[in-house]
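Try this one yourself first.
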């Protein structure tokens, strides 16, 4: 009887401990996702400022600016894949604005544009850091949800694996331009 009672107590303690680990891992992942949302919002807030500077120099490029501004509304949801797709499109549009600025030396010389471009580079670095933190938190959660014996408790209490957030920035795929002058 005492052995059975001891076994039940140990089992309850183990289940409680594992459940709390799963809750902690899930909350870290949710917190990290929130951090990505903050960084993406900062990125999106730079767009009207960049668009206004470019618009003042490149009046005939309004179509690109309008499309980019339309994509800027950050709608961070729990759907990692939708957010990835939207941010991939947004990043391509944003890259086109920066490339457009290359065609207009007066834009590149504008101090407001330079400051905004520097801010954008800093925000992209912050997004990368937030993405790495999120993916680490998701990795830890997924290990708990998918490995034995925690997977038994995870399944019982409806814990689910999350998808990693892969945000490929257009600049990462671009071939670097080397000027030998």
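Now uncover the answer:
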């Amino acid at each position: 009887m005492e052995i059975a009672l001891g076994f039940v107590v140990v089992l309850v303690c183990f289940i409680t401990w594992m459940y709390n680990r799963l809750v902690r891992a899930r909350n870290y992942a949710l917190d990290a996702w929130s951090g990505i949302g903050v960084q993406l919002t900062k990125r999106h807030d730079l767009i009207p400022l960049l668009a206004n500077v470019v618009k003042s120099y490149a009046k005939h490029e309004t179509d690109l600016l309008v499309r980019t501004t339309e994509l800027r509304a950050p709608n961070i949801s729990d759907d990692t894949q939708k957010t990835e797709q939207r941010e991939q499109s947004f990043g391509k549009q944003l890259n086109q604005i920066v490339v457009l600025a290359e065609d207009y030396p007066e834009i590149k010389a504008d101090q407001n544009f330079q400051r905004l471009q520097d801010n954008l580079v800093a925000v992209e670095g912050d997004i990368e850091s937030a993405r790495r933190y999120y993916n680490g938190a998701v990795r830890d959660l997924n290990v708990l949800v998918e490995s034995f014996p925690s997977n038994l408790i995870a399944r019982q209490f409806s814990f689910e694996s999350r998808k990693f957030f892969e945000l490929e920035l257009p600049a990462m795929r671009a071939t670097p331009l080397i000027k030998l002058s």
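Discussion: The radius of gyration is 23 Å. The chain has a mean pLDDT of 80.
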